[in-house]
């Protein structure tokens, strides 16, 4: 017994902590009367047609393993769906995964050798950094400007001097709500076409883009052979618990990603795959509805926070807003803890998303308008007590 201690545990695994979002969520549980705006779980029900398709799949006994890559019907629909964004991957270049999370881990596992440098934006979705560390990779960060767009001077320098193996792009962004503008996508392509870096583009919020046109680096066929796309349905169909995502890559990478996927999970859950298939075939109107609701909420939150004096960028996608709290003279975790204790509103400290997230907070507006209105009133009242 005495010989069992932390030396028995992988040092890479010990080097990461549980996500700051979850950590804070666990604190919120201690305040049952608090309003929580912490999670990335839309408040909409799964569209009825998806539910019915899943029930039917069970009744039809579609409950066995699927092929490792997932059912052909769903992969074909994903291929068509991506085409509508100007992104071209055939069904054989698509693997269905257990959420975007498995897709990310599979890709990083397939790519990373010990010490490989992986370039990640700061702030960013925390899983990127943790996956890389667990796999023994080295995390490098690139800077974002005040409006959360890419700081190209910084990116160019890092690409030239550090020569990272891969870089992560994450648009629309969790936590900032930023998207890639047309100009920046062109600039990015011009920079990346002359570089050898592999590109991992996490576009899990692609369906929640509030601008008319969608721009992404995965639209450029010239660099498709080294661009790996991550997508999924958790946010798109409000089906986070049904766990369906996907990864798209050229054959060279897909063959290796598939090995990791196969030995990890064999395949994604069959029933949920049929649900996602129904979603893509027949639920695009539900997406339009959800998107329009998120836009209403985004406008409300932005205007309300601005009128309270927060410095904040207008989010253009996903369902998060990331205001600065620097003027309140508190660290972001201190701000959030006080807000939770004193005003009973839970939001996530920006520090959970990286060093550059310090001085910001992430508010999820994937909640009902009533909840958002009440929480904004409480925040306003609390802020006035600080003056
Ligand atoms: C940017 C980003 N990528 C990937 C994921 C993982 O999604 P999933 O729930 O499909 O595993 C999330 C979930 O919040 C996310 O915000």
UniProtKB/TrEMBL annotation:
Gene3D superfamilies cross-referenced by the UniProt entry: Aspartate Aminotransferase, domain 1, Type I PLP-dependent aspartate aminotransferase-like (Major domain)
Keywords: Aminotransferase, Pyridoxal phosphate, Transferase
Pfam families: Aminotran_1_2 (PF00155)
Cofactors named for this entry: pyridoxal 5'-phosphate
Keyword presence, Transferase: yes
Domain Aminotransferase class I/classII large residue range list: 33-373
InterPro entries: Aminotransferase_I/II_large (IPR004839), AspAT/PAT-like (IPR050596), NHTrfase_class1_PyrdxlP-BS (IPR004838), PyrdxlP-dep_Trfase (IPR015424), PyrdxlP-dep_Trfase_major (IPR015421), PyrdxlP-dep_Trfase_small (IPR015422)
EC primary class: transferase
GO molecular function, one term: transaminase activity
EC number: 2.6.1.-
Annotated family: Belongs to the class-I pyridoxal-phosphate-dependent aminotransferase family.
Name the record gives this protein: Aminotransferase
Species whose genome carries this gene: Clostridium moutaii
Highest classification ranks of the organism: Bacteria, Bacillati, Bacillota, Clostridia, Eubacteriales
């Amino acid at each position: 017994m005495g010989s069992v201690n932390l030396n028995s545990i992988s040092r890479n695994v010990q080097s990461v902590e549980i996500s700051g979002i979850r950590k804070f969520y666990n604190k919120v549980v201690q305040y049952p009367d608090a309003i929580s705006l912490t999670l990335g779980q839309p408040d909409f029900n799964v569209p009825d047609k998806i539910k019915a398709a899943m029930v039917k799949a069970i009744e039809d006994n579609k409950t066995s393993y699927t092929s490792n890559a997932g059912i052909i019907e769903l992969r074909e629909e994903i291929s068509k769906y991506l085409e509508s964004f100007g992104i071209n991957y055939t069904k054989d270049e698509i693997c269905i995964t257990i959420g975007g999370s498995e897709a990310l881990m599979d890709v990083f596992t397939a790519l990373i050798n010990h010490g490989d440098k992986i370039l990640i934006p700061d702030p960013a979705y925390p899983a990127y950094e943790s996956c890389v560390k667990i796999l023994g990779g080295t995390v490098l960060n690139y800077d974002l400007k005040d409006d959360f767009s890419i700081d190209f001077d910084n990116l160019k320098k890092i690409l030239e001097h550090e020569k990272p193996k891969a870089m992560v792009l994450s648009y629309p962004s969790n936590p900032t709500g930023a998207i890639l503008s047309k100009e920046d996508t062109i600039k990015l392509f011009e920079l990346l076409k002359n570089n050898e870096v592999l590109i991992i583009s996490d576009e899990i919020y692609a369906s929640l883009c509030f601008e008319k046109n969608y721009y992404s680096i995965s639209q450029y066929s010239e660099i498709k052979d080294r661009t790996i796309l991550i997508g999924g349905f958790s946010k798109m169909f409000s089906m986070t618990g049904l766990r369906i995502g996907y990864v798209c890559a050229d054959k060279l990478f897909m063959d290796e990603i598939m090995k990791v996927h196969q030995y990890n999970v064999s395949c994604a859950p069959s029933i949920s795959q049929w649900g996602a298939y129904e979603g893509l075939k027949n639920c695009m109107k539900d997406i339009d509805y959800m998107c329009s609701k998120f836009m209403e909420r985004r406008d409300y939150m932005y205007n309300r926070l601005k009128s309270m004096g927060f410095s904040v960028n207008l989010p253009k996608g996903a369902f998060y807003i990331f205001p600065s709290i620097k003027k309140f003279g508190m660290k972001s975790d201190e701000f959030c803890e006080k807000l939770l204790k004193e005003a009973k509103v839970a939001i996530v400290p920006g520090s959970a998303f990286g060093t550059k997230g310090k001085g910001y907070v992430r508010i999820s507006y994937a909640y009902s308008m009533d909840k958002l209105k009440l929480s904004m009133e409480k925040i306003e009242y609390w802020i006035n007590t600080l003056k």
